[in-house]
Amino acid sequence: xxxxxLRDIVLIGVVVxxxxxxxxxxIHFIYGENPVESLKDAASILSSGSIVAGIIGFWIAIQNYWxxxxxxxNQEIKLRQDAxxxxxxxxxxAVDREIRDWQKVTIHxxxxxxxxYNSFSDILEFYQAKAGTHPRLLIGKxxxxxxxxxxxxxxxxxxxxxAQNDSxxxxxxxxxxxxxxxxxx
Length: 185
What we know:
With about 180 residues, the protein is mostly helical. It folds into two domains: about 5-90, no CATH class; about 95-185, Winged helix-like DNA-binding domain superfamily/Winged helix DNA-binding domain (Arc Repressor Mutant, subunit A, Orthogonal Bundle), CATH 1.10.10. The protein is about 75% helix and about 5% strand. The protein contains five helices and three strands. A three-stranded antiparallel beta sheet has the order 1-3-2. The chain is rod-shaped, with a radius of gyration of 41 Å.
């Protein structure tokens, strides 16, 4: 019934009232009562019916108003939830970037302090010990796994900041040899 518009309800009410009025007149006509009395009875029925139709119309108008208000409030809530979710994702992404940058810098600093090729297990041990010392970030155990360290090492390898040998050992990329080769040519 809420899908019906107020106009449709009023139209249905008018049709019903006209049917009631014509029915009352017909009954009074068949039984031979005074047509004027029949019209008075019909007018009484019509006025009662119009009051009922008015109340129904008013109720529907109120219901439509509040449904509209509720819909607008729900839309506002949805927009705010979406905005909060987007902000939460942005915050998570920023924290992830900051952790990732910290991881890269920490590993790079370790390799600089320990020249030559360092074993994966030595790097992992240093990496896990160093994680609790970040001044602002709480780095959970899921960020201190071997897989996560390998991911960071691969990122550093990809941009050629570090080098890896066949024994799964890592060192700072030595660009001086490459520069010397360029000079020889």
